[in-house]
Amino acid sequence: MSADTVKTPWYSSYNGVREHLEYPDYSVYSLLEESAKKHEKLTSYDYFGNSVTYKQFISQIEEAAKAFLASGVKAGDVVSVCMPNTPEALISFYAISKIGAVANMIHPLSGENEIKYYLNLTGSEILVCIDLAVSKVCHIMADTKLKRLIQVCVADSMPIALSVGYHVTKGRKVVVEKCGIACKWSDFIKNGRRYEKETFHEGGPDDTAVILYSGGTSGFPKGIELTNRNFNALAIQSFEACHTLHEGDRILAIMPVFHGFGLGICIHTVQYFGGNSIILPQFDASSFDKLLTKNKPNVIAGVPSLFEAMMKNKRMEGVDLSFLHCVISGGDSLSQSLKEKVDAFLKDHGADVQVREGYGLTECVTGSCMIPAHKYKPGSIGIPYPDMYYKIINPETLEELPYGEDGEIVLSGPTVMKGYLNEEEETAQALRVHSDGLTWLHTGDLGCMDEEGFLYFKQRIKKMIISSGYNVYPQYVENVIDQIPEVLLSCVIGIDHPLKVQVAKAFIVLKDGYEATPELRKRIREHCEKNLARYSWPYEYEFRRELPKTLVGKVAFQELINEEKEKALAREADNA
Question: Which residue segment(s) compose the domain that 192 sits in?
């Protein structure tokens, strides 16, 4: 059996999108190089006004490739990159690919023990590191195999005036410990100029190109091995599925390079079709209006919290957004109500576009399903990309369920990971061969599919609340609460209850200018009681000025759960 046996009702909604695509058998770098030959005079990326053409970018990568090889890196070695979005991060990523090594992408805000874990898991001996994280590395260096640390400052590639300004303001506060194995990026590049041998290594499609990390809701995150084919297929599929992208388009690359969404979409996909990645090391919500009016990006790709920031920024009033022709939300679920609010905001600001939600996970790089450009169904996360197959199964029997019935979302296709690094059991649980002969990625997400192939994400299976034997779906409750005009967003979790085992508790953030009055609380409660089954009514409502977020901007619901558990333990101690 094969993919021919998989039901694909979504093809009828493709509307010009090809069902099947061709994927090259070469490396991530080679895909960029091929694009650069076609677009050498176009801008590849922009960093605070410093624009670099594709031809210049290829030269920068060659310099870094020589420097890595001169430092002793060989094909197959793992090079760690602990960087925000800077030119050096992009250059390192593609240079590592060019020489046939593996890029291990680390969040620079990770704790010392996390960084040590990532270095030891991969056996990295060389690290490209932002200066803000160097001190943390120095503290754990002796417990790793690290031999070389290449230190980068966010100002290194800024225009001179901005660089000077950074060093006399924010830069003065950066304290960097001296480290015997450290050198500056400029010296690293200079040392590579003596290397005279060939730098290009012909990587194969199944070679590991990148290691990214899962969310790590319990214990340390898992290292996800992603291949050249995974990343290249994502770029080709995303361009085809989006259907509104053109060479020369400017993309606001806010999502970080250590995240599949940032690296796979905002960088690699953009570089594939000849776009311009406008890169920023840090996103400042308070200056979002200036960012948009100055750069006039054609595409914005971000998590829901990015669009919340856009709507909350008071200086956005009257800003013309007519330059936008594609707005994509991913990385976290976008409630139907929030989508409607974002769409209305875009329309009010002159943008003839609606936000399109995507769905995916790092185990398949990032999005592999998205709302099509011409058709939207309320509550849907869209339809699969070309060559990606989705089905809904009973997680116990692996049996495919009928349309409209809730089950586990599983997917198959060329972007599905190689596996979890050094985690055979975890890999075997996530990647399973079904009776159709295909390997399916088990997402752990609950959802359903309609007869036209549109998918509906309900939530993480583990997040489901069971109250008095009934299944309560937090995201559904959140969607109902978010319908209230004064509500910006909400998060619903399960809290312990002596009789019902668990009940729902709602955390609510209001739009600017609204107060959490008893009258509003009552109206929200009445709205829930009118629109929800009794067993799923929130037991408590708590207003917050903001909700905790993960490092990539998702609502950190686990933090709220932990807070509630700590409160419960404190109450028990007081009553003892």
Answer: 26-38+46-203
